[in-house]
Automatic annotation (TrEMBL):
<feature type="transmembrane region" description="Helical">
    <location>
        <begin position="12"/>
        <end position="28"/>
    </location>
</feature>
<dbReference type="GO" id="GO:0005886">
    <property type="term" value="C:plasma membrane"/>
</dbReference>
<feature type="transmembrane region" description="Helical">
    <location>
        <begin position="191"/>
        <end position="210"/>
    </location>
</feature>
<keyword id="KW-1133">Transmembrane helix</keyword>
<feature type="domain" description="EamA">
    <location>
        <begin position="127"/>
        <end position="262"/>
    </location>
</feature>
<dbReference type="InterPro" id="IPR000620">
    <property type="entry name" value="EamA_dom"/>
</dbReference>
<feature type="transmembrane region" description="Helical">
    <location>
        <begin position="157"/>
        <end position="179"/>
    </location>
</feature>
<feature type="transmembrane region" description="Helical">
    <location>
        <begin position="98"/>
        <end position="116"/>
    </location>
</feature>
<dbReference type="InterPro" id="IPR051258">
    <property type="entry name" value="Diverse_Substrate_Transporter"/>
</dbReference>
<keyword id="KW-0472">Membrane</keyword>
<feature type="transmembrane region" description="Helical">
    <location>
        <begin position="128"/>
        <end position="145"/>
    </location>
</feature>
<comment type="similarity">
    <text>Belongs to the EamA transporter family.</text>
</comment>
<feature type="transmembrane region" description="Helical">
    <location>
        <begin position="247"/>
        <end position="268"/>
    </location>
</feature>
<feature type="domain" description="EamA">
    <location>
        <begin position="4"/>
        <end position="112"/>
    </location>
</feature>
<dbReference type="InterPro" id="IPR037185">
    <property type="entry name" value="EmrE-like"/>
</dbReference>
<protein>
    <recommendedName>
        <fullName>EamA domain-containing protein</fullName>
    </recommendedName>
</protein>
<feature type="transmembrane region" description="Helical">
    <location>
        <begin position="65"/>
        <end position="89"/>
    </location>
</feature>
Amino acid sequence: MKLAGVDAATTAVARCAIAVVVLVPLAFRERSRVGALSRGGVLWSLAAGAALGIDYAAWTASIYYVGAGISTVLINIQVLVLPALAFLIDRERVTTRFVITLPLMLLGISLVGGLWNASLRGPDTGTGVLLGVIAGCGYGVYLFITRGSARRDPGLFVQPLTWASASATVAAAMVSPISGGIQPAGISAQSWTLLALLAVLGQVAAWLFIHHGSVLLPLTTTGGLLLIQPILALGLSALILGEHPTVLQSVGAAVVVAGVATANGLLLRKRKC
């Protein structure tokens, strides 16, 4: 994303728009083979996409404030947002692990945000952390709505993602003035190529795999596999972009990841004899 050298707002809108172009023919193919998405499914997908667009817009902006690795750690609070929404809306029981993990996550976020390091305190860091948390909340809302809509139209994956990506494009465009507005002029061919790769690999392929896999795997397993993302992001941002977090930020990132894992029972899971 940062390698493309494109501003945050334009990146968020472009990745969603390019994804729609790729997904449309795949959606028509799914419709002819499996069936059409119901009207309710379309509406739910549009609502989910609005949350996804806010997620992408906030996350992309956060990357330019605090770096790719830290921002990717922050958005993983979605694993806590999801059960919170399930409790508040669907009245699903909240586990003791979730209650215990909440302050642990807040501690980790404060470490990442430099609250305990005077040299890191400033408007850029604070804004970046806030945007990362907003992105994580949007991400959690998207997953929550998608989970509910999947029950309405089982077996359909491409069509919901297509409608959601279209809605995300509009949502990201609507909030783009907050981070400087869309500026497509002057983008080089190389940057467009990198944006296309981001859309195809990071959105189309990744989300189709997640949609398919999450149906087949338990929620805790899915949550555990998603923890690979922030770990890889921290490593790659240091290796490729030269973004090296402080010791306290690294500890905070580890606390966030550990908190997410604990909330999903991945660290305290009892072994069966």
